[in-house]
From TrEMBL:
This is CAAX prenyl protease 2/Lysostaphin resistance protein A-like domain-containing protein. The chain crosses the membrane at residues 15-34, 41-58, 78-97, 104-121, 141-159, 166-184, 190-214. Residues 105-203 form the CAAX prenyl protease 2/Lysostaphin resistance protein A-like domain. GO terms for molecular function: endopeptidase activity. Coiled coil: none annotated. It comes from Dysgonomonas gadei ATCC BAA-286. InterPro entries: Rce1/LyrA-like_dom. GO terms for biological process: CAAX-box protein maturation. The keyword Transport does not apply.
C-alpha cells in the first residue's frame, strides 16, 4: 500500500512539473484560433480557459488544505513584505499616465475582473503548486524553473498584442516570478505575493495593455 502511494505521488508530481508546457501549448492554440476571429480580444478566452485549467490542477493536486497553507500568516521579517510589494509599485507610472482609458465599461470590467481573480489562481498555481511539487529540488533550481515557465506563459499574449511582444514583458515577469518565489519560500505564505500580483495587474492596466491602448492613450 505504501509503495502504491509513493508511485501515485511520483505520477502526480510528474503531471504538475510538466503541466506548464501543456498550459502554454493550449494557450498558444487558443490565442491563435481566437485571434483570427476576434483579434486582440482573444486575451479573454485565453485567460478564461487558463483559469479553468489552473482551478482544476489546484484543487485536484493541491486541495483545500494546500490553499489554507498557502494563505497562512507569513513568517520572517518585514523586509520580505517590502520586497514583494515593491514589485507592484513599479507599475504605478503606467496607471498614472493611462488611467483615462478606464472610462468605457468594456475596458474597465475585464481590467477589474483580472485584477481581482487572476492573482489568486496564478499564485496558487505558479508559486504554490509548482513550488510545492518541486520542493525536493535544489531551492534555486525550483525558483528558476517556476519563474521561467511563468514568464514563458505570459509571452503567449504577445501573439495578439504588439505591446506585450518583446523582451520587456519576458524579463519583467521573470524577475517578478523569482522575487515572489523567494518570498514564498522565505515566508511560507503566498499572502504578500498575491497582493503584489494584484497591484501589478491593477496598476499595469492589463486589459488596455492586451488591446494595445496604452501607447495610443499616453499623454
Amino acid at each position: 500500500m505504501e509503495n502504491s502511494n509513493i508511485s501515485l505521488y511520483k505520477k502526480d508530481r510528474n503531471i504538475i512539473i510538466l503541466s506548464p508546457f501543456i498550459i502554454i501549448l493550449i494557450n498558444i492554440i487558443v490565442a491563435l484560433s481566437f485571434g483570427k476571429l476576434i483579434g486582440k480580444w482573444a486575451f479573454i478566452p485565453v485567460i478564461l480557459i487558463e483559469w479553468c485549467i489552473f482551478s482544476f490542477l489546484i484543487f485536484r493536486y493541491g486541495g483545500i488544505n494546500s490553499v489554507k497553507n498557502w494563505l497562512k500568516k507569513p513568517q520572517g521579517g518585514i523586509g520580505w513584505t517590502i520586497l514583494a510589494l515593491s514589485t507592484g509599485l513599479i507599475c504605478l507610472p503606467i496607471f498614472i499616465f493611462n488611467k483615462h482609458l478606464l472610462t468605457v465599461w468594456t475596458i474597465w470590467l475585464p481590467w477589474i475582473a483580472l485584477a481581482v481573480i487572476n492573482p489568486w489562481l496564478e499564485e496558487f498555481y505558479w508559486r504554490g503548486l509548482l513550488s510545492d511539487y518541486t520542493n525536493n529540488w535544489n531551492k534555486w533550481l525550483s525558483i528558476f524553473y517556476t519563474s521561467v515557465v511563468f514568464s514563458a506563459n505570459h509571452a503567449v499574449f504577445g501573439l495578439n498584442s504588439n505591446m506585450l511582444r518583446g523582451p520587456e514583458l519576458v524579463t519583467s515577469t521573470l524577475i517578478m516570478g523569482i522575487i515572489w518565489a523567494i518570498v514564498y519560500k522565505k515566508t511560507g505564505s503566498l499572502r504578500w505575493a498575491i497582493f503584489a500580483h494584484f497591484m501589478v495587474d491593477f496598476l499595469s492596466l492589463s486589459a488596455p495593455a492586451f488591446l494595445d491602448l496604452l501607447n495610443m492613450g499616453r499623454r
